[in-house]
Write a structure and sequence with these properties.
Arc Repressor Mutant, subunit A; two-stranded antiparallel ribbon; 44% helix; alpha+beta; 288 residues; globular; 10 strands
């Protein structure tokens, strides 16, 4: 009886929090308006050309599966072999039974076509996993944090080009996230520089550089940020700085890092949702 009362109180509390968040959202400007105040008008967003997402009735199952790192690695292999593959072609990152589970799921939700003992994507070509990963991260912000979020955004701004992978409105703050599906060895200095250029141009309250990997960020990615800050300091370029001091990169925990509580460098180790929750919590606590 006591447990039922506790569950009821918890549900009521969650409902009240949801109501308060909705009220707060209604009191603040929508995300496009916050961007226009910064001089940014959305030109294009959320392109569907390479998006690997099932029909609406299967979205919840697909979303839950995408939270598993091994499933996301499996999808990369599926895209690589999209014209035709056997189970052994996509069994690099999971045991055979788990791979079969993943293949059965994609087949049941209409993303794979089976012919004999081989499979292929129903919708081709899909050039990369990147757009699907961006879509998934936007779903995390919407579902787990009840935030307004858009992905794959293009602006008409000649000074700083490129796509903004994800932009979200957290309460009244703008969050920009760069999303990398490639492993650290395929990330180059120019990508770090472009990310910082977009942060400086957009002026979000917080920015996240996210890599979908469980590898250590301290080995390559963090040093690349340090080198880029040093380069900008030596050349008198705009950066995130504290006076004349070069910005220091500090570890929050494990593979989560921050720069002046404004820029966060994270990966997918343990849980993407948990890692985002930790950096959001730190941002709002330190801001207060």
């Amino acid at each position: 009886m006591g447990e039922n009362k506790c569950d009821s109180e918890t549900s009521s509390l969650k409902a009240e929090i949801r109501r308060l968040r909705e009220s707060l959202t209604g009191l603040t400007a929508p995300l496009p308006a916050l961007l226009r105040r910064r001089g940014f008008r959305i030109y294009k967003k959320e392109p569907s050309d390479d998006l690997l997402v099932p029909k609406e009735r299967f979205i919840d199952r697909y979303y839950l599966s995408l939270q598993r790192y091994s499933f996301r690695l499996f999808l990369r292999d599926v895209i690589k072999h999209q014209a035709g593959f056997s189970p052994k072609d996509v069994t690099r990152y999971a045991v055979a039974d788990v791979t079969k589970e993943y293949i059965d799921l994609l087949t049941s939700i209409g993303l794979l076509r089976k012919k004999g003992g081989s499979y292929s994507l129903r919708r081709q070509p899909v050039k990369s996993f990147g757009p699907t990963l961006e879509w998934f991260l936007s779903e995390i912000f919407k579902r787990e944090f009840e935030a307004e979020a858009i992905w794959g955004i293009k602006f008409k701004r000649p000074a700083v080009g490129g796509d903004y992978d994800l932009i979200a409105k957290i309460d009244s703050s703008v969050l920009y996230m760069e999303i990398k599906s490639s492993p650290p060895k395929q990330i180059y200095a120019g990508e770090i520089s472009a990310f910082l250029d977009r942060v400086i141009d957009l002026c979000p309250e917080m920015a996240i550089f996210f890599m979908d990997t469980e590898l250590r960020m301290k080995d390559k990615i963090v040093p690349m940020f340090e080198e880029e800050f040093l380069r900008r300091s030596d050349n008198g370029l705009a950066t995130i700085s504290a006076g004349d001091k070069i910005s220091e990169i500090e570890r929050i925990e494990k593979e989560l890092f921050h720069i002046q509580n404004k820029i966060f460098i994270i990966n997918a180790k343990d849980s993407i949702v948990s890692n985002i929750e930790k950096v959001l919590g730190r941002y709002f606590r330190k801001r207060s």
